[in-house]
Amino acid sequence: MQKLYIIYAIIFIVNTLNSYKTENNVNYNIDTYEKSYVQYPVLSGLENQDEINELISNEVDNIINYYRTYDLSGENGEYRKERVISYKITNRDDEMLAVCFKGYVVLVDDNVPNRPQAIFNSFSIDLKTASIIELNKIINVEDDSFVDYFIENANKQLNTRFPGEDVTINHVFSNEQIKNLLKNADVRREISDNSEKFYAADSLSYISGEYLVIRFSVLYVLGQIWDFYIPLDETVQWQY
Predict the structure, then answer these.
(1) Cα–Cα distance between 126 and 228 in angstroms, integer?
(2) CB atoms < 10 A from the CB of 184, how many?
(3) CA-CA distance, 8 to 104, in Å (whole number)?
């Protein structure tokens, strides 16, 4: 199993390094730091880089606290767990940075199977204001016409994902639930578990290339995660 973890680490590091290819118009630098086996970007060359890096560091701490709730304490109280979590920058320009964290956490205990648990998290930062950008600050997600467009687009993608099966987004979510998930995408809420406090969002979004990706959590039998890819050029009428 240890060799498997090393392979995971190599793959994540290679993917991360590949993401550092930058455009000529971007005038800031990115290095990689690591905290509790979580790799994360550190920016330099920006006027408000300290505030931005603090946002990123806080998000990493939040990821660590969230997945610490799955830990089992060892004889001396140490957390006995393997984890490899890396990041990928999915959008980088002069105004915004979008970061996705992905990896595996494996509990290590005689009474628990060593089964990797997939990890995913994302957030976007407004580089001008040094603040987290939520979906409702990018798109007018409360416009009924956008909700209708999203549902239609989502169903087309589900038809491709589940060929020959009658699966629609409304089989899992009502229209009101979809509206709330869009409205609250990337909005963190405080959760307490096993004396640990962390922040989690019921739905996430990030920009990747020419797409806005919106992520909903679903039942395990449906794949756990549904990612919907929305072409950015089709959202112009709803963009702020």
Answers:
(1) 23
(2) 17
(3) 8
Model confidence over 8-66: pLDDT tens digits?
443 444 444 333 334 445 789 999 999 988 999 999 999 999 999 999 999 999 888 87
φ and ψ at residue 8, rounded to 5 degrees: -55, -45
> What tokens were used for 121?
């998290």
Blockwise average pLDDT, block size 10, the chain, 240 residues: 42 40 66 92 95 94 75 48 84 95 74 69 94 94 97 96 92 95 89 60 91 91 90 95
Closest CA to 123 of 178, 62, 68, 59: 59
- Most distant CA pair in the chain: distance in Å? 58
What does the CA dihedral 92, 103, 190, 35 come to, rounded to 10 degrees? -80
Contact (Cβ atoms closer than 8 angstroms) between residue 96 and residue 207: yes
What are 213's strand-pairing partners? Answer: 206, 229
Taking CA atoms, 137 is separated from 58, 65, 89, 122, 237, in Å, by 21, 27, 20, 16, 14
For residues 119 and 101, the answer to whether their CB atoms sit within 8 Å is yes
